[in-house]
Amino acid sequence: MSSDAMAIRNVEIESRPWVETLHGWLTTVDHKRLGILYILYALFFLVVGGLEATIIRIQLMRPHNDFVSPQVFNRMFTMHGTTMIFFVAIPVLFGFANYLVPLMIGARDMAFPRLNAFSFWLTALGGFLLYFSFLGGSGLYGAGNAPDIGWWAYAPLTSRAFSPGHSSDYWTISLLVAGFGSIGTAINLIATILSMRCPGMKLSRMPLLVWLNLIMAGMVILAISPLTAAQIMLAIDRYLGGHFFDTQSGGSATLWMHFFWIFGHPEVYVLVIPAFAFVSEIIPVFSRKPIFGYPVMVGATVCIGFVSLSVWAHHMFTIGMNSYANSFFAITTMAVGVPTGIKIFNWLGTMWGGRIQFKTPMLFCIAFLFQFLIAGLTGVMLGSAPFNWQLSGSYFVVAHFHYVIVGGILFALFAAFYYWYPKVTGRMLSESLGKLHFWLFLIGFHFTFDVMHVPGLLGMPRRIYTYEPGRGWDTLNFIVTIGAFIQGIAILVFVWNLIVSYWKGDKAGNDPWDAWTLEWSVSSPPPEYNFGSIPVVASRRPLWDLKHPEDPDSSYE
Amino acid sequence: MRRTNNPIIRSGIQTFALLLCSLATAAAKTASSSTGLTNIFAPESTPAKTIFNLSVFVLIITAIIFVVVLTLLVYSVTKFRGNAGNADREPAQVYGSTQIELAWTIIPILIVVVLFLATARVIHAVQDAPQPPGAVEVTAIGHQFWWEFRYPELGIVTANELHIPVSDPTHPTPTFLKLLSADTDHSFWIPQLAGKTDLIPNHPNSMWMDPHRTGVFLGQCAQYCGTQHAKMLLRVSVDTPEDFGAWARAQQRPAIQDEKVAAGRRVFEMTACINCHAVGGSAANGRFGPDLTHLMSRETIASGAAENTKANLRLWIQKPDAIKPGSLMPAMQLSDSDLDALVSYLETLR
Predict the structure, then answer these.
(1) Fewest Cβ atoms closer than 10 Å to its Cβ: which of A18, A285, A324, B62?
(2) Full domain range(s) for residue B303
């Protein structure tokens, strides 16, 4: 386990031809390289999805704006949503899981390295197919177009009558292919975590990040499978004359809603649980204390996993379910708040009595706590079915889920970038640029998404390309757009930091944060086989034991 | 190192707090200066009021949780910051506490139970309300991108502007809507009168409202339904019982036959207009677009996208994309004289 045992470090041979390097990256089965590929792929699409969001926000800056046509606007919000969920959030979180899980459990790679590569390239193909619709949506002979069906693609908008051409087919096939990729990675993560842990690492000694990714992987299998099945059914409808969702032939529009949201809601937790995982690793290190209530944190997450499988129809409170069904989904939705609240309290308990260091990763984690708290509380409002009848489909919902995904997940992701970048590249990210990024993004975020709740309360529905003046929405939308631009600038600072620090950053060393999990015991970047000799652990914080032989964790657990 | 960071963070937090305050003021100002015509917190009907009362309760509970947790967060961040004095030693390593965990499990469970009971009560009160004998029945049918309203008991078919009687709480005359869709999913939402309910093909829904005052209430389609989802606006005119009766009698009459506009009528009946539009008492009985029998009784055209003026009517027939790009109304390609005649005819349909 000690860092000087890195005898098989992959020494870079003097400048290999670029074709060989490229070939190496394209054919790699190394979990670290695949992790980096996932992350770079997601960062690329983050910028693309961000540009789409910018187009949306410019159009909505003032009433009756004509920056883009309604057709283009509808394609932009469809592509923005689909891209951000399927080709940014999932890949970037899988990238981190891929990179970190084997290192944290003392393994040399994932259980199935080739399945890992296969899954990544399937996901990559999915993103390519989605964007190829810009060219091939109406066939290459005509002007192409992208899908304009919304990211949840409610039937019967997707039927041939309402969506001619091929744009919806690209959407369907893209998610089908990416879905197989996600399921492959989920199986791989589960197999890795269950069977590749180093000696001494019992389940009860796994870092929380590993536990949470195990739960996430289980949920991916349960959530993405129905979505993938529904995509096949939709393809059958569109090409083989099926009538699952074709209401003009007696099909059911609500069937699609159930299929989609039985994926869609657990999906929120598929994304947020890895974000919890980052926070659960970073807060302890920068508070200089172990995580408060480790077994409770695991239990609460398992609980979230199970309960979140029975909340999907809270996206459908307005479709006319009977009062019993509405009551059931209201209570399950509110019940998720309990384990989520427990997690927030445990993070606070971790900080309590600690010695908090306000490095950039910690700043992002604190902002995460604040914003996730608000997101959770607006979630309770939305879970109250009658309140939901007013709020759903309005900008309040848009603000709420962006609070979860940007204010929660993206902030945790930024924390993870600042925390693990030194391990991946061997260089520190600049702290001053990091703080600039943090404050700019925080201000932009609150400009945009705090204000965005209000037009929803004033009756502004989502997915409208323009709106009438005189409803009290004008100024608010203008502020929201300004905030979006501030966030855009912050993202540029972040990308600039990633690029500049790769060459100019301070050398990181093995363990720049004085942390406690196994990835910090190896060199930065880690050698190809991670561990020269497989480590043996005796507690949840093996490096604490190493650094404090007089008072090791192993004597308390 | 840590010490030098503190001023940056402190000034950052100050700026941030200032920003939040100014944002809140700005939001409050715009909200109060607006007409409030679609404000969910200005309810004018029983379902909307019941929901409003529940939402105030939920907002109070969540606000209390917010303040408590935020206080803990701010306290931890300020009280337990690292400094030079303790930089060289680790704080006490605490692994957890069963009592505390139990406390912060049980209290949230109790809160959830209370919230759920309040919620379930309102779900039942709004959804399972029986239809009283004096209720007005309306069938609302969502189309891309307009609303069809049928009054089966009164034999009225109209579009986009719903007329209903005001409901005196002592002798309620609520309106019960049956919601259908002719094509894709839509959602009926008049924030001041009731929560939204979707119109889904092959899946009839229902909702009700009993406005307590007269006036015009606005809303719009709240479920993405295709290209012109944005301009699928809704107007509800709440009338006194007398006005409603007069309106209904006027709507029940067939279209006015005015010989002075016979030329325009001929244009209407000889072109594709009648494939989609109906005019009572004439050969036109298309059902794909709005019924035009009493077109001029409506204040707007194109589902609220434009005022019902001569100029707008002319533009709408000639170049619908100028008002509502992507709507299913085709450009009729008429000569100027035919267009003038047609508009003159339409203007007689009172």
Answers:
(1) A18
(2) 259-346
CA quadruple B190, B193, B197, B201: dihedral positive or negative? Answer: negative
pTM: 0.93
CA atoms in the 13 A half-sphere facing the CB of B143: 19
Query: Taking CB atoms and an 8 Å cutoff, what residues of chain B touch A69?
Result: 325-326
Say which CATH number the domain at B269 has. Answer: 2.60.40.420
- Outline where chain B has alpha helix (H): 2-33, 46-79, 98-127, 241-252, 262-270, 273-276, 310-318, 336-346
Q: In chain A, which residue's Cα lies nearest the Cα of B35?
A: A471
H or E element, residue B159: strand B156-159
Question: Contacts from A242-250 at CB under 8 Å and sequence distance 24+?
Answer: A245/A155, A245/A156, A245/A158, A245/A159, A246/A155, A246/A156, A246/A159, A247/A155, A247/A156, A247/A159, A247/B201, A247/B202, A248/A156, A248/A159, A248/A161, A248/B201, A250/B202
Q: Which residue of A has its CA nearest to B85?
A: A355
Residue from B60, B86, B89, B90 to probe the interface with A (highest A Cβ count within 10 Å): B90
Using alpha carbons, select from B249, B343, B15 the residue that is nearest to residue A446: B15
User: What's the gap between Cα B46 and its chain centre?
Assistant: 16
Count up the domains in chain B and report the number: 1
pLDDT of residue B7: 53
Nearest to B230 among A70, A381, A387 (CB): A70
Å from B320 to nearest chain A CA?
14
Round to whole Å and give the CA distance between A491 and A496.
8
pLDDT at B2 over 70: no
Distance, in Å, from the CA atom of A304 to the CA atom of A307, rounded to the nearest integer, reads: 5
Summarised one tens digit per residue, pLDDT across range B218-237 is 999 999 999 999 999 999 99
SS3 state of residue B235: strand
CB contact under 8 A, B91 and A288: yes
Q: What is the pLDDT of residues A259-269, one digit of tens each?
A: 999 999 999 99
Partners of residue B238 on adjacent β-strands: B164, B215
Give B-chain residues touching A287 at CB under 8 angstroms: 80, 91
Average pLDDT over residues A73-95: 97
In-domain check, residue B162: no
* ipTM of the prediction: 0.92
Of A346, A366, A380, the CB nearest to B58: A380
Backbone angles phi, psi at B96, to 5 degrees: 150, 180
Q: Which residue of B has its CA nearest to A458?
A: B39
Q: Do A320 and B82 touch (CB under 8 A)?
A: no
Q: Which of B108, B120, B229 is facing A341, going by the closest CB pair?
A: B108
Residue B147 phi/psi, 5-degree rounding, is: -115, 135
Strand partners for B203: B200
Cα separations (Å) of B164 from A300, A341, B39, B49, B289?
Answer: 51, 46, 20, 18, 22
Tell whether B334 is covered by a domain: yes
Residue B191 has pLDDT above 50, yes or no: yes
Report if residue B322 sits inside a domain: yes
**Domains of chain A by range and CATH?**
16-555 (1.20.210.10)
Residue B140, phi then psi, degrees to nearest 5: -105, 130
Residue B23's pLDDT is: 54
Return the number of other C-beta atoms located less than 10 Å from residue A240's C-beta: 7
Task: Determine which of B19, B34, B59 to mutate to test the interface with A (most A C-beta atoms within 10 Å).
Answer: B34
Interface of B with A in 240-269 (CB under 8 A): none
pLDDT at residue B34 greater than cutoff 80: no
Q: What's the CA gap between A477 and A49, in Å, rounded?
A: 20
Measured between beta carbons, the chain B residues lying within 8 angstroms of A56 are: none
- The count of residues in chain A is 557
The pLDDT > 90 percentage for chain A reads 92
In angstroms, the separation between the Cα of residue B198 and the nearest Cα of chain A is 5
